[in-house]
Amino acid sequence: MRVLKPQEGPQETFLSTSADIAIYGGAAGGGKTYALLLEAVRHTNNPKFGAVIFRRQSIQITQEGGLWDSSYEVYGGIKGAVPKTSPRYHWKFKTGARVGFAHIDGDRDLGKWQGSQIALIGFDELTHFTKKQFFYMMSRNRSASGIDPYIRATCNPDADSWVADFISWWIDQDTGYPISERSGIIRYMVHMNDIISWFDTEDEGIDFAKQHGLDEYKAKKSVKSVTFIASTLQDNKILMENDPGYLANLLALTEVEKERLLNGNWKIKPSAGSFFKRTQIGDILTSIPNDIVAICRGWDLAATDEDENKEAAYTAGVLIAKRACGRFLILDVVNKQLKAGDVRKLIMTTTKADNVKYRKYCTVRQRLPQDPGQAGKEQAGSYINMLAGYNVVTRPESGSKESRAEPMAAQWQQGFFDVMEGEWNEEYFNQLESFPESKFKDMVDAGSSAFGEITLYMKFNINSLL
Length: 466
Known about the structure:
This protein is of the alpha/beta class.
C-alpha cells in the first residue's frame, strides 16, 4: 500500500503548521505543488469537506504536467477517489469529500465565488494573484464541516508582487534571501481598511481590533495567524534523485531568474546589464559560417517619422541564424524611425535583400508582431499579403518585454551567441547592455521575436523527424 507523506524538512513543516495562512516556497523545485495537494488528503474522511486549489489561468491546470496531472500522483492511489471533469476538474472521495481546481484569471471571476463556503483554499503560485483576489477569496474561506477554515499557498520569488511585502518579516531586506531561523514562525495579522497590521501574539492583534471598534467576538475573528516556510531545490531530495538534470536547467537561466528560482532571492530585479553584456558573446565574425540551418528576422514595429518626434520608438529588425553546431549568430540589425508607409517599404526591401543574400544557406523567415483585436488581425493580414511569396508569419506577443527577452538572454549569457561584424554593432550592443532600463528597447524586442521563432522552428522540425 502506497503511503502518502511529506519529505523531511520544509515540506513537513508546511504540512504540520497550525497557521491560518501558510505560504510555502520561495524557489523552484521545492515540492510545493505536491505539498499543496497532499494537504487536502488529511480531511478526505469528512463527507462535508471541500477544498479548491486555484491557478491564475485554466491552462495551468490542464496542460501537460500541470496541476491536474500532478493530482493523479497524490489522489490516484487512494481507494475510492474518482477524478471528474464536470462541472470543473475535481476529485471526489468515497466519503463525499471533494478537492477541486479552478482559475481566477481576473477580478471578474471573483463574482462566481460569491456565497461559496470553502474549508481549504489553496493558491498555487500566489504571486500570480492580486492582493484583492487573495483577500476576497479569504472571505469565502468558511465551512460547516467542523473543520476550521484555512489557506495554503505556494510561490516563487517576485520582488514586484504584493506577496514580497506581505512576507517581508521572513525575508532579509538587505540580501533578499529568507531568514532561516524565522522560517515557520507564526505571526498574527489584522486586515482592516486595506491595511495589514502585524503582531507577535494573537492577544496583541485582538486588542488592536477592539481599539478600532470591534467587539470581542469580531476582534477574535479578525486576527489571522500567518507563516512563511522557505524551501529550495535541495530540500526536494526525490526530485534531485529522479531528475538530476533539473538543476542544470536552473543553472542555465539568466542571472536574474537564477537568483530568483534557484537561490530564492526576493529582492533581485532586472537592471542594466543583467540580461546582455557584450563580453558574453563568443566571437565577432567577419565571414558567414557554412553550417547555418535556419534563419529568421524578427520585427518590432513603430510608425513615427524621425522628423516628427525625436523620442519616438524605432522599427527594428534583427536577423538571427541557428547553426548545426548549436550556436546562434546575429547576422544583421536594422533600426530606423519611419512613417507608417516607409515602415512597410523597409520590411519589403529588407525581406527581398535577406532572401537574395542568404538563400544559399536556407529560406529566411520573417516574423512580425500581431497587435490584439480586429485591427491587429487586419494589419497582420495586409503584411502577409504584401510579402506573398516569402516565408512570413505573424504572432501575438504576450508577457512583458523582460519575460520575452529571457530565453534569448539565457543563451547569450552562456556564450552561445556570435555576432557578424557590422556598422550596427555598437548601437545594438549599447541597447542590449542598457536593457531593461533604456528608453528604447526595439532591437531587444525584435531579437526576442526572432529567437522565439527560430527556436520554435527547430523544435517543430526535430519533433517531425522523431
